TrEMBL record:
Annotated region described as Disordered, given as residue ranges: 86-108
CDD domains, per the entry: ChaP_like
Stretch forming the signal peptide: none
Residue span, VOC domain: 4-125
Record organism: Actinomadura harenae
InterPro entries listed in its UniProt record: Glyas_Bleomycin-R_OHBP_Dase (IPR029068), Glyas_Fos-R_dOase_dom (IPR004360), VOC_core (IPR037523)
Name of the protein in its database record: VOC family protein
Organism domain of life: Bacteria
Transmembrane segments: none
């Protein structure tokens, strides 16, 4: 049996702002509200996965970690730096402006939070 994650709901103070934020960092195209369930701001991560952001007052932040290729990683870090967006080398140090050059996976990692407090982690093998 094959099991894949199809989508996950990500709480946010402003669903469209949160979807646009991650789309900009990862150089993805934000497609707008879900065509049927219009209370979700849907961001397609890849062919198999969407993040469906839902506006929830006082939403608790989630941690989402993505394996990315080195080109995507470098482009995301460049975007964060070029736009003065806080990022860092650990979940507790996600605003120190550093990149983890010795991530536990053996590659590099970077953490950043969206305005709703969702904490993202990008991991690359090199």
């Amino acid at each position: 049996m094959t099991i894949r994650l199809n989508h996950t709901i990500v709480p946010a103070a402003d669903n469209e702002a949160a979807a646009r934020y991650l789309a900009a960092v990862l150089h993805l195209e934000y497609g707008g509200l879900h065509p049927v369930a219009r209370h979700f701001a849907q961001l397609r991560i890849n062919e198999e996965l969407t993040l469906d952001y839902m506006t929830i007052p006082d939403a608790p932040g989630h941690h989402l970690a993505f394996d990315v290729d080195p080109v995507t990683f470098d482009a995301a870090v460049a975007h964060l730096r070029a736009h003065g967006l806080p990022h860092g080398d650990g979940p507790g140090t996600h605003t120190n402006g550093q990149v983890d050059e010795r991530h536990p996976t053996g590659g590099r990692g970077v953490y950043f939070a969206d305005p709703s407090g969702n904490l993202y982690e990008l991991i690359t093998s090199s």
